[in-house]
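User: Here's a protein and a ligand (beta-D-fructofuranose). What would the complex look like?
Assistant: Let me lay out the input and then the predicted complex.
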Amino acid sequence: MSDFKPTLTTIKDHTKELAEAEAGVAELAATRNNRWYPKYHIASNGGWINDPNGLCHYNGRWHVFYQLHPYGTQWGPMHWGHVSSTNMTNWKREPIMFAPSLEQEKNGVFSGSAVIGDDGKLRFYYTGHRWANGVDGTGGEWQVQMYATPDNDGLTSATKHGMIMDCPRDQVDSHFRDPKVWKTGDTWYMTFGVCSSDRRGQMWLYTSDDMVEWTFHRVLFEHPDPDVWMLECPDFFPLTDADGNEKWVIGFSAMGAKKNGFMNRNVNNAGYMIGTWEPGGEFKPETEFRLWDCGHNFYAPQSFTAEDGRQIMYGWLSPFVQPIPMENDGWCGNLTLPREITLGADGDVHTAPVAEMTGLRTATRDFGALRIPSGNEFIVADDAEAVEIEITLDLAASTAERGGLRVHATQDGAYTAIAYDDQIGRVVVDRQANALGDKGYRAAPLSDAELASSELKLRVFVDRGCVEVYVNDGKQAMSSYSYPTEGPRAIKLAAESGDLQVSSLKMHQLRSIGLE
Ligand code: FRU
């Protein structure tokens, strides 16, 4: 497999396919219903989206690409949609970047990443996807790595150069995708997810001197759980803590892990391990697998290292299970807010919204401290469409079995609870009282130190059709869809079976990012 020589061709013209895709999105957008369409999360104008792709900061702009099916609100032949921004809070729609047009990608331009070479120029690596039997998934997939370069510094179009890595199909059980490229020392590395022929989830490592010709180097990582058969959208990067200790973080979206208590509750589960890596070796984990996000819908995140040194991640809120009410509205799926990944003094990675997100705030109301007696509710807002709430709960002074917020609370009694649940000692996002969509609850753990502290800080983002919760400055995050029914969308504080002491509460109105 190491003697594969890419045949680079300049395949520029897929304008016809791109124009058709733009028309597909426009047709869906024309009749879009905005009741759950995000005001400040990235989504396509119309059509289905999944994973963030090609994340980068290039030539003064932030770029977010994403998996896009332009002809319907379910997953289908994949394209790359595109938005860009100078500040991560005002976004502009850009032309669709890639549509399937080559034999190797005829059933989809799958996920991939962007990286800046030593010449300062950006490159794209992505997976070309074909059904192995030419018809559907029943015969497996034939996936290969592809290469493209932008035509201009604004990244408004790109030239495909074709396949740079074929799949050694005798050693792979068809899944072979989602390249991530970086440089350590003088060597360029590429890793991607593989289902090995014995059905183990692996990440393979290739090396290159010129970013075009790649040689198989080794298996970087094999997931220890034999149930895990594929690691989608792998990520791999170093992080340094405040004391200068460097660790490597391996991230992936694992397929096949069994549900186990609070772990792996979603269909597939995205998380990370922290460990060490030396060039030439394999990744050596020092932690167990931990979720990036404990919500109902987080999946397929991708991160990149910005010029300013920040490691920034976007995830996708995967609808995962039916019913999916938004798919009847002309669009389906949005990304999370951008999150900065840091290594904390506790040795764990934290993900909090990038500092720029405070730039979304328009008006702020400060409620100060509040005590909610057992069984009572306090109205924070009669109708809140797009807000951020900063709330600190005083756990020591509270007796509530469950206390916190009810958001998307409508007059029919439906709501989503975002609360501290003392019985399990966790923060919950509970959709049992939702009228629409998949229900269930999810719970994020708190460390002994966090439980012993009297203060529990929650930063809660409520958009029209989803919520994001950041616990104690990003020690945990939770992302979930939440579909309010008709009428005003109230936000309340509620105390169940005991009193709730709130030390502080602020609500910020958030403005649109300009993509509605
Ligand atoms: C993850 C994923 C990737 C793949 C893409 C296809 O959600 O399955 O592995 O490249 O989506 O849309």
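Summary: The helical segments are 15-30, 448-452.
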